[in-house]
Model the fold of this input.
Amino acid sequence: MTPKTPKTILTVNVGRARAVDYTDAPGGATGIDKRPADGPVRVTDPGPKGTGGSGLAGDAVCDLRHHGGSDQAVYAVAREDLDVWERSLGRSLANGAFGENLTTAGLDVSDARIGERWRIGSDLVLEVTSGRIPCRTFAGHLGERRWVRRFTEEAAPGAYLRVIEPGEIRAGDPVEIVRRPDHGVTVRMQFLAVTVRRELLPELLAARDDLHPETLRSALKYVGSQAPGE
Done:
């Protein structure tokens, strides 16, 4: 039997703001070009969306309308998913290529359950909230034709996480799943429900207390619109 890959953080990635011509963010800048940090990085709750940026110290979020904030404080992508994309695109993808803060190994990030908690290193605890929705800035950064559609069809979006307990993390830190809810609502399911399979929205309510607030509102609105007589 092939031994399982240990659950670890391969790299912790941060990005500086830089001006580009492929974003509609205010000021025309983006921090999506993230690179592995050399040492430990402090992770804290950045505050509400619209005012709070990244949960990682030194990591730029330029479009606070759509990115950052408490429920999208950290973005994680599995190295295994990047490897699949490498084969599909016929090009190499470095850790951080998708603008992720954490490149993981041994974790099925897109099939993590909403509300699942990860202890990373000795202090940090993160909680899975939702999948990443592709945008124009992501497409421009990758430079791939039809990227938003291709990424959506693959339905392996990686996971946004909120900070439950702050702490420092670094490359090589172990990841322990310390809470796994008993509902079956995964990141992949949530992503499909809010993009191309809206009929799944009612099923997300099984994870009600753990859902990203925007997802919860969408699910409740959909259920209300389907009520008899409306």
Notes: DSSP finds six helices and twelve strands in the chain. The CA atoms of residues 5 and 106 lie 5 Å apart. Helices lie at 79-89, 136-142, 147-154, 187-195, 201-204, 213-225. The mean pLDDT is 95.
